[in-house]
Amino acid sequence: ASETGPVEKSVEEEVEESAILLLRIHEVFVYKLPPLKGHGGRRAEEWDLGNPALTGTLSVVNKGETVYIQIFKDALTLFASAPIRVDDKRPLEYFLECCRDTSRYFALRVEDDKSKRHTYIGIGFRDRQSAFDLRAALDDQLRRITRQHEAQSISSDEDQLKPVEKQLVDLSLKEGEKIAVKINLPPKKEKDKKKSQKKKPTQSSLSKPPTADTGITPPLTKSPVKAKSVINARTAKEKETQAQESVVEDDDWGDFQS
Question: What average pLDDT does this structure show over 186-195?
Answer without folding.
Answer: 66
